[in-house]
Amino acid sequence: MPRGTSLTSLAKSDRPAATRYAIRRLLGYLWPYRREAAVAVFWLLVTSAANAAQPALTGLVIDTAVDAAEAGASARVLVLPSALLLAAAVVGWWSQRTQILLLGQAGQRALFDLREQVFEAVQRLSVAFFERVESGDLMSRLINDIETLNSFLSQGFRRVLGAALGMTATLAGMLIVDWRLAIATLVVVPVMLVATRLFGLIARRAFRRRQEAIGDVSATLAEELAGIKVAQAFNRTEAERSAFAERNAANRDANIVASAVSSAFSPTLALISAMATALVAAFGGWLAIRGLVTIGVVVAFFGFTRSFFNSISQLSSLYAETQSALAGSERVFELLDTPAEVADAPDAIELDRVKGHIEFRDVCFGYGEGPEVLHEIQLAIEAGATLAIVGPTGAGKTTLVNLVARFYDPTSGSVLLDGHDLRHVTMRSLRRNLGVVLQDPFLFTGTIADNIRYGRQDATALEVRTAAETANAEEFIERLPDGYDTVVGERGATLSTGQRQLVAFARAILADPAILILDEATSSVDTRTEVLIQRALRELLVDRTSLIIAHRLSTVRDADRIVVIEGGRIVEDGTYDALLRLDGVFAKLHRSQFAG
Q1: What are the domain boundaries of the chain?
Q2: Residue of 227, 283, 204, 172 lying closest to 10 (CA atoms)
Q3: How far is residue 230 CA from its own chain's centroid?
């Protein structure tokens, strides 16, 4: 156990909130399958009744045998009680098999619905959310936490309910057979309840800490794998290994605490069970000596006691699993309940094919609680025009186009498309009219044809090939082993940066957007690839509104208009030649690139 952490300190920690709410919400996923669940619960009741009947029938067999021996009767009198005991065992086996199957199916269907909701929630979350949350922690919620819910919904819930019903049925059987021995058995129950309450306060927080530690390790691993080349290039592998070791140690310590909680609970209940058995043996023996109960009843109570505390033991072993599931559910529900910062308004309208007239009216924007990045932007872009956006690093160029794509909403002011405020337009219809090519284009695992077709799933093979030819990507694709059917691997790792860029341009051409956004789309490619991209651009920019962010000023010479952003403000606006004659910020940028 880590230094400074104890079970007592955990018990004194803030009590986990909304336990009952989390349970109700989890069970709510079973509600659509309540018929199957109800039938399964019926068979659980049958299982519990059959199992509870077996100790009583065992005692009946013993008492029948004793009476037969004393009366000199035939052993045939044992046939009926023995047959009843065997029948109870068979019924218990059959009903248990049936309820396991039914509740297992209902649990998997409920988990399917939960996974669908979680993935849908992730898809609707805004870009700002993914900038704040580490991808590894998010993956931990989507995989590790949901897996704990998988175990609970498909197996744990059934076992908890079965143990609870079994304990109730056994208690009823004890009271029916002999209430005095039943009370003797239950004397230790208050001790058990106190122990359960104490461990409950400890376990929930311990398992939540464990889930958070797993998320931290996952986040670190994801970052390290993504940056392994940089770490090796800067000789930082030892430092990164040390940083990971700290997080791994925290994960180890959290798991040790969780294991300590689990390991202490079951033996405690086993000791309580032994105390109950001792009480039954002593008190039952005393009653039998005085002829107040039969030997069969005492033997039956040994079975009752074992069954009763076996159910409690099962509940205790499942308690840790349940607490782990509840801790995981809290993290999953946090994700589900995270509101999208950018969402469709109730009165949002659907746009068809837009003309592409874009206007910024007094737009200001800042990221979260940070300083303002854009200040009072006034800008109108005519439909079909090509606007180049240039300026020093950090001036706000990418932020400007991100507002057009509505990855963010302005802090104040408004962005309009064909006269419609983007906040009153459905994001689906807006982005259906957008095409984006980034500096580092993202390709998905799959074939080149799949990636080109990404923006238009119904495109034919001929249309895919035509788009690739227009983007000047045909030449390198034909040289690949399987041509358009070549699998590019994760993030397009098997292709060069220039090849990925050409595929991204082909994807944008095939999507045929009314508005095209190019964010440093040629800054990472060689001169030859840039020439190919410039040829593709001549086709791509025709009859569509285009916003081009560029550091290489040579790529924006043919733009209809250029705006220069500095410090979050538009400081210059005009054509390429007019801005050079102005001899301002653009002219200085131009001289710095073309000096000598």
Answers
A1: 19-336, 343-432+554-596
A2: 204
A3: 29
Topology annotation, domain 343-432+554-596: Rossmann fold (3.40.50)
- Give 408's contacts (C-beta < 8 A, 6+ positions apart): 126, 127, 128, 341, 342, 365, 367, 399, 402
> pLDDT for 46-69, tens place per residue?
888 888 888 878 877 777 777 676
**Chain mean pLDDT for the chain:** 79
Name the DSSP class of 487.
B
Residue type present at position 537: L
Tell me if 518 sits within 8 A of 548, measured CB to CB: yes
Q: What are phi and psi of 318, to 5 degrees?
A: -80, -15
Summarised one tens digit per residue, pLDDT across range 208-241 is 677 677 667 666 666 665 566 555 555 566 776 7
- Cβ–Cβ < 8 Å for 480, 399: no
Residue 483 identity: G
* Alpha carbon distance 362, 341 (integer Å): 21
- Among 155, 154, 152, 149, smallest CA distance to 115 is for 149
The two beta strands, 412-417 and 545-549, are unpaired
Q: What is the DSSP letter of 152?
A: I
| CA pair distance 76, 62, nearest whole angstrom | 14
Say if CB 401 and CB 437 are below 8 A apart: no
DSSP 353: S
pLDDT at 487 over 60: yes
For residue 152, give Cα distances in angstroms to 23, 36, 360.
11, 17, 51
Q: Domain 19-336: which topology?
A: ABC transporter transmembrane region fold (1.20.1560)
